Amino acid sequence: MSHPLAPLGRTLAARAVRYVVIGVSGANLYGPSGQAVFTTDDFDLFLPADPDNLVSAWAACEDAGLELWSTSDPLDRPRDRWLAERVVERRALTRVTGPDDLFADLTLVMKGYDFETIWAERREFVIEGTAIPVARLLHIVTSKHAVGRDKDRLFLATHRDALEQLLRKQDDL
Amino acid sequence: MKRSLEDGLRALREATELAKSIRIELTDDYLELIALVEALPQNQSGADKSGRWRGSRAYWSFIASGRIVEPRS
């Protein structure tokens, strides 16, 4: 089955959009294939507070046939620089939905970090032939610790154990 | 079905209460674990992660294929 992020990754790359996968979906990519992953139903894409980059990201989503939402309403049109400037000012989130159960959030905020720090130390994993920028695991975990919501604490409570299991399996190979 | 829904809601309430009581510290050994995982060969730039989603989709397909049954008496 095709990875739901792959088509969007291709169009984001085609438009040279700067973004980094963060959150649980990013942490999952550090696990080995076949191991249980933390359940999440969406992808968090961290973007810089750059209106032009955001316009390109919206266009890339449309190129991939995805729908854009602002809270529960479709994102206004035209999806131009003026609108992007308003969204950046508010650090508002754009939600993306599409086929193959894709849910993604385009976020301009990552607690505890600025975009350039995350971007400078990113990893680029390959998914179905496309390079997908992913934040360092250290940055994902420390940001979740800083946010401290209930779901973040639940994640952190199980994540450490998962890392220990992963390394034990690595030793057994 | 009603009982399953109530069971599910109760489990969610319990999980929420549990989460509130959890305090996770980023200790030196936790941070060292993270560094070790980041250093694995399969976690370097260029690694192919295409298989990651297949695992979780298989998991969700398995869950979705389940059905509710009455407990055995």
List the helices and strands and how they pair.
The complex is a heterodimer of chains A (173) and B (73).
Chain A: H1 5-14, E1 20-22, H2 23-28, E2 43-46, H3 51-63, E3 67-70, E4 73-74, H4 81-90, E5 94-98, E6 102-107, H5 115-120, E7 123-127, E8 130-134, H6 137-147, H7 150-172
Parallel strand pairs in A: 2-6
Antiparallel strand pairs in A: 1-2, 3-4, 3-5, 5-6, 7-8
Helix pairs in contact in A: 1-3, 3-4, 6-7
Chain B: H1 2-21, H2 28-38, H3 52-64
What keyword list fits this structure?
heterodimer, A: 173 residues, alpha+beta, Beta Polymerase, domain 2, 6-stranded mixed β-sheet, two-stranded antiparallel ribbon, 7 helices, B: 73 residues, mainly alpha, 3 helices, flat
Strand content of chain A: 15-25%
Number of helices of chain B: 3
Record field, number of beta strands of chain B: 0
Helix/strand/pairing category of chain A:
alpha+beta
Rg of chain B over CA atoms, rounded to whole Å, is 19 Å
Low-confidence stretches of chain B: none
Radius of gyration of chain A: 16 Å
Question: Which CATH top level class of chain A fits?
Answer: Alpha Beta
* Shape assignment of chain B: flat
Verbal overview:
The complex is a heterodimer of chains A (173) and B (73). Chain A is of the alpha+beta class and 173 residues long. Chain A has one domain (5-165): Beta Polymerase, domain 2. Chain A has helices at residues 5-14, 23-28, 51-63, 81-90, 115-120, 137-147, 150-172; strands at residues 20-22, 43-46, 67-70, 73-74, 94-98, 102-107, 123-127, 130-134. Chain A has a six-stranded mixed beta sheet. In chain A, strands 7-8 form a two-stranded antiparallel sheet. In chain A, helix 1 packs across helix 3 (51-63). Chain A is globular, with a radius of gyration of 16 Å. The model of chain A has no long low-confidence stretch (mean pLDDT 91). With 73 residues, chain B is mainly alpha-helical. Helices cover 60% and strands 0% of the residues of chain B. Chain B has helices spanning 2-21, 28-38, 52-64. Chain B is flat. The two termini of chain B are 17 Å apart. Classes of the chains: A alpha+beta (173), B mainly alpha (73). The A-B interface holds A 1, 3-6, 28-37, 39, 123-128, 132, 136-138, 141-142, 145, 150-151, 153-154, 156-157, 160, 163-164, 166-167, 170 and B 15-16, 18-20, 22-24, 26, 30-31, 33-38, 40, 42-57, 59.
